[in-house]
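User: Hi! I have a protein structure encoded as tokens and I'd like to know what sequence might fold into it. I'm fairly new to this, so please keep things simple.
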């Protein structure tokens, strides 16, 4: 038998030397599942994959006849396999797969007040059970909303493919967000950040890039000179945002951004580099670094996405149209950009109203 080199798989022997094959559950290294068969069994790999997903399965010959088929755990594994196939076919993003995998595993590991694990329930569970899972995440409404979205997608796929005969998640609504998202940066915030991170620093370049491109952090970490091109005697930058539904963005590089880009002494594949002179490996890496830079500048309440929101508001205040904002920020629907217009118009109306009250003879 050839040596196996599978993630999480280990062999333990008892005093008589008899091997026992055990698998660490992915995402929970403290939990191990003992496989009921040896590697030479025809169903070994399938049982191994189930164990990695946290499911203890028994060999049954025909997979379609297994009891595990009816569990929520089984449905999760099948859906994530489908989603991985879509990622391989470049029809879905790896980020979506990773996010939904984590959220669905979290839901399956939830425990009811009666001590029952959600993953052990029948996959065609009553709708109110899914509502109970959502309510367990009430303190993090953003994550709860994403979990509801993942559950909806899973059941939509299972219903359309005939795996389930009902869709218990179709009427589940996400929790209402407590706030309005990221706080927009003001001009004073930008100056305060610059005072702590002056020109020439990577932090200054990062904020300048966000400010003069309105890009998302999922795009910022991968932008570089490869995205530049010449048009009508000016240097432009263009990219396809990774966010689903976004339109291609191409905008001229304004002098402040060009100066910041060209003043860097270390030139890499991307504009933004780590302290070791390497591109950030992921948006999360850059997001963590931005968090540190904001904290150092005394702006712990702000984030990179707030720069994008602040930029949209400033463009409207400076006379740009909704379609101008759409082109810069990659919005395919004017409703998204209208948010900035409505906020500005409310301030204008409020100012007009107060000016009229100022003339009241009281």
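Assistant: Happy to help. Inverse folding works backwards from shape to sequence: for each of the 362 positions I chose a residue that suits the local structure. Here it is:
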């Amino acid at each position: 038998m050839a040596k196996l080199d599978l993630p999480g798989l280990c062999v333990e022997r008892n005093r008589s030397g008899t091997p026992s094959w055990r698998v660490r559950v992915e995402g929970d290294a403290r939990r191990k599942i003992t496989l009921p068969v040896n590697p030479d069994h025809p169903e070994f790999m399938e049982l191994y994959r189930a164990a990695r997903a946290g499911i203890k399965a028994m060999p049954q010959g025909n997979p379609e006849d297994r009891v595990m088929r009816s569990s929520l755990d089984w449905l999760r594994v099948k859906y994530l396999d489908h989603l991985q196939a879509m990622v391989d076919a470049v029809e879905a993003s790896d980020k979506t797969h990773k996010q939904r995998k984590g959220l669905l595993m979290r839901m399956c590991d939830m425990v009811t007040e009666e001590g029952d694990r959600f993953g052990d329930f029948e996959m065609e569970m009553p709708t109110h059970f899914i509502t109970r899972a959502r309510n367990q995440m009430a303190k993090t409404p953003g994550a709860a909303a994403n979990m509801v979205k993942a559950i909806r997608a899973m059941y939509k796929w299972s219903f359309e493919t005939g795996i389930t005969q009902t869709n218990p998640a179709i009427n589940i609504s996400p929790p209402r967000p407590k706030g309005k998202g990221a706080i927009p940066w003001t001009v004073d915030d930008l100056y305060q950040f610059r005072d702590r991170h002056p020109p020439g620093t990577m932090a200054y370049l990062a904020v300048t890039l966000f400010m003069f491109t309105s890009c998302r952090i999922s795009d910022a970490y991968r932008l570089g000179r490869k995205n530049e091109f010449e048009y009508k005697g000016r240097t432009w930058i263009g990219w396809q945002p990774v966010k689903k539904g976004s339109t291609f963005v191409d905008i001229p590089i304004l002098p402040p951004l060009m100066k910041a880009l060209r003043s860097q002494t270390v030139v890499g594949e991307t504009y933004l580099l780590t302290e070791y002179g390497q591109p950030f490996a992921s948006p999360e890496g850059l997001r963590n670094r931005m968090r540190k830079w904001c904290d150092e500048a005394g702006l712990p309440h702000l984030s990179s996405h707030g720069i994008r929101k602040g930029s949209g508001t400033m463009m409207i205040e400076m006379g740009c149209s909704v379609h101008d904002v759409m082109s810069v920020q990659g919005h395919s629907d004017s409703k998204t950009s209208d948010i900035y217009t409505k906020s500005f118009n409310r301030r204008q109306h409020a100012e007009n109203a107060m000016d009229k009250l100022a003339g009241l003879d009281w």
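A useful reference point when you look it over: The chain has three domains: 9-63, 72-160, 187-351. Feel free to ask if any position seems puzzling.
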